[in-house]
Structure formats: structure tokens, C-alpha cells
């Protein structure tokens, strides 16, 4: 029997519960856990030296498989380096099982190496922290470890999903002897059955009455994965009931003539009467965060009379400051049942009418189409080489049935303003749980390791250099395409109003840097190309997205002052658009 048999039980329990992916950062104190994972025949392990990058690579994998991913690191400051990824996973509801090796408690603050306070180290950014005992002599200790391991894994898989932490104090010896055998199991599995939220018939009738009594209805979809079933029922509601459906690019609502994707353009209007005309009586939301600042400001200033949030759990969030009902239901199932019940009710009563105010959707869709044309007209010009126009051409060139991972700061805003057409079938991901620049590239690497699709990471230079350790491993897959928008500084600070007006802009906000991505690409074995004009971009794009036996990196160099000037010019266009 192995010295650390409880770790073999933990790994076997993970496998029994469907967890088969692990990202490991090397270390000595964590060696027993690393060996248990490496030697289990059903665990796929990946080794990433930088813990911060490792955590985000695990996030990227978990996004794809929609199952918990194990993250392992050694004791000490290594654990703190997982914190950004853990926080992102918590707020984006991505399941991780974070296993941190530790020294026994009696050695804390005793001048021993790699020893810090690791109990509850992630605070409120995990669903729960657990800690196993360092000693397993007494049968109760083994029972406790077995029970806690079951509870932790079950919790990571329970809605709302998210990271769960198990701290593992380990005594020496840490490494097995030559005659030590690894036997996985037997282990007791405590199954936790999933409960499907259900609403009583009386509640459904009350919701239907509220629905029918509201003349102007609006459905808004926050961040979420591509869900064909959800898109289908929302499109059906939009087409047949003439109800506007609004979403950002990270909602994975495509531009298809039905869905509203440009609220940032046409809601930026000061006329009180016009804004009042766009106010819904009933707002129904699902999904997570929204990018569109104008949409959020509009609903906070002109709140609906009723606001339903549909989600499969009861954690309350009220970003529009108008919530009246939290409905614990899986969104697709909710909209399908709502449509079916009301459609049947209208059939029985021989009522062929859709909804009271059909013009409400027409107003939203007309404005959305005009806004889309305005953006296209602005970006089609090629007299000035600037970032946003570059992004539009990149989006147009994305392979069909591929993935786009958009970094925070300006890239995700550019993409949201441009949008993606339905026929492109491009799934969009972004780290909008905390909206930080750290880990954006690592998350894309994790995704590319898990899917056969082409994965394109669109990232700014500051975010790229901040996370270039994402490429410092032996894992970078051939289906990864990295596009670096290099304007040699934090360009968003020149574009948003506050810092752009300060005399300290250059020195304290933009963090000007002269770096190129070329050396990083070469170190990672990536095919590298740099462009500085529209003609060079057009020549580079066709080959960039073709299949290859190596990953590729395209660096696009622009002038950040020119970028800011062009975005300012776009804002003037929007002002004129909304004043007409």
C-alpha cells in the first residue's frame, strides 16, 4: 500500500465522478498527488510550470468540457498564483477542483520553507474550502477524508458551478519507495442526485398572467456558451411573438436579422421621450454579464416595471437594479415551456394575436439594422490603418465553425461593436467573470488543447506580454492562432474619458513599451508574421488560418494615437446618428 493512500483514493474518486482532466504545476511537496494523477490510467495530465497560467489553462479546458478540471500546485506562494484563475472561475461559474499541497499545520510560521497560511486562502472566491488531515492513523480520519472528498467534488458539480478548494497537508516521506505499489480503490462513492427546479402550476399561471399583461416585452441574454437549443427557442419567440431579443457577442447571439446586437450604438441618446419609448414593461434576462455599457445604463435609468431573471440556481444578482422575480429554472427549458403553454392557451381560446405592441420589436430591430450599417460604413474605409478596422477584417476572415477567445480591454469591445454573422458559426469566449487581462491567452491555450476546432485568441499587447507564459510549456497545440494587436501600450486609457484627459496619461496609465511578440513566438515554436498595413493584412490572413503542423502568431502593429483619434471620430458618428 502507498504511504499516501488517501491521495490515491481521492484521485480514484475523481475518476468515478467523471473528472479526468488535470493541470499540474511541478513541486516537491505536491509530489505524492502529482504521482497519483500521473499514474492513474484514466487521468489526462498536463504540466504547466507557471501556476497563474496553469489555473487559466484549466479554466479554458473546463469551459470546453463543462466538467470540473483538477488543478494541482505545491505549497507556499505557488498557491497564491492560482488566485486570479480561481476568481475568474468563481464569477464565471466554471467548475475547478483546486488541490493544493501544504506542510503540516505545526510548521506554519516556524521558519520552514514554502510555508504560508493556506487554509481558506481563496476566501470567498471558492464555493467552499476543505482541508484534509495530515495523519490517517485513526479510522475516523480516513472516514473524514473520504466524506470530505465526496462533498468537495459534488459541490464543484452543483449549480451554480465553480471552484472548490481542498488543502492537503502532507508529511514526509513524499516520494514512494521502489517496492511501494499504487492501488486505486476501492473507494466509497457518495452520489449526489441533481434536483431539477420545478414551479407549481399556480406559479406558472401567475407568470403567464404577468406575461400577457405586459405590452412591451424585452428578452436580454448575458454571457453564456453557444447553445443551439436556446437560440432556436429565442428565435422562434422573436419571429412568432414579435418580441425583441438583445445580447452581446459573448452571449453567443449571432447577427441574423432577428436578434438585437448593437444597443451600444442606438441607446446612446439623451432624448427622454425616445428613451421612454424603448423602455420595456417586462424584462426577462438569462445568462451572466453584459458588455454593453449603454444597455446597462439605459435599463438602470429606465427600469422595467417587472424583471425576471431565469437561471438554474438561486444566487441573486441584480445588475440592472430592477429585479422583481428570480426564477430558478434552466433557461432553455423555461422558454420552451413558456412558449408551449401560452401558444396552447391562445389556440384553445382561438386567439391568433401575438402580443399587444408589435411595434416595440420593430423599433428595436429598425434601430439595430441602422446601427449595424453605420458601423460597417465606418469600418469599410481604408484611408487610415487603425485597430478597430483591423479587427473587423479579422472577424470576417475567421474560419467557419471555429472559436474566438477575446481578451479584455479594447479587443472585446471592438468585437462586441462589430458582431459576428450567424452563418460564420463562430463561438465566442471571454474572461468576463472578473474582466481582467491576466490569463486571457492561457484560457485560449486550454481551449485549444481540448477541441479540434481552430481557436483564435485576439489579444492586446499588454495582455499578451502579461500572460506570455501561456506559451512557456510543451503544450501549445497546432490549432491555436494568436493575433496580437500591438499599439505599444494600454490603448484603452487613451480612449475612455477619465484617464485620457489627465496629463499623467503617458507615464502612469498607458505603460508604453517597445516590445515585439516575435521572440516569444519563436521561443514557443510558432509561425510568426507581422503586418503594418491593410495590404499586408490581406496578404497574411488566408495563410494564417490554414491548417498547419505548428501554431501561428500574427502581430499587427498600429499607432495608439491614431486608434484613439479614429474611435473618437466614431463617437461623433454615433452622436449624429442618435440626434437624427
Automatic annotation (TrEMBL):
Coiled coil: none
Keyword annotations from UniProtKB, A to Z: Magnesium, Manganese, Menaquinone biosynthesis, Metal-binding, Thiamine pyrophosphate, Transferase
Every Thiamine pyrophosphate enzyme TPP-binding domain range: 440-556
Cofactor(s) annotated in UniProt: thiamine diphosphate; Mg(2+); Mn(2+)
GO molecular function, one term: thiamine pyrophosphate binding
Task performed by this protein: Catalyzes the thiamine diphosphate-dependent decarboxylation of 2-oxoglutarate and the subsequent addition of the resulting succinic semialdehyde-thiamine pyrophosphate anion to isochorismate to yield 2-succinyl-5-enolpyruvyl-6-hydroxy-3-cyclohexene-1-carboxylate (SEPHCHC).
Family statement: Belongs to the TPP enzyme family. MenD subfamily.
Oligomeric and partner information: Homodimer.
Protein name: 2-succinyl-5-enolpyruvyl-6-hydroxy-3-cyclohexene-1-carboxylate synthase
